[in-house]
Amino acid sequence: MEMRCKRMQCRKTSDFIPRINPGSSMDYLNRQPFTPHVRSSYTHPKPFRLHTSARALSRQLYDERKRIRMDLRMEQLASDWYARERSEFFKLRKMTNFRATPNPWKQTRVTTGVGSQGAYK
């Protein structure tokens, strides 16, 4: 049994073949280490355009149009309120004046002429 173990150990050491993936490159072993290169110590900004003046003008025009719309709406609401109050006032005023209304169940005289005999007395 001892000989058998020795043979297995010998076989294991002698049969060892390093597995290298042929598809991968091993040139990293021979390369120089990475050293970063600094090209300049400051950045060069690109020119830019701000649209603040155009935006301010468009906002001012929008605010003016909105104010005009709000004024028209407030005038419309005020005129509607005035018309409602006025119609309610006239309705209440009309209700305060008493008018006698004829009784629909009361019999009235029907006259067909002077001295007629068919009149109700």
TrEMBL record:
Composition bias, Polar residues: 102-114
Domain of life of the native organism: Eukaryota
Region (Disordered): 102-121
Protein name: Uncharacterized protein, isoform B
Source organism of this protein record: Drosophila erecta (Fruit fly)
Taxonomic lineage from the root: Eukaryota, Metazoa, Ecdysozoa, Arthropoda, Hexapoda
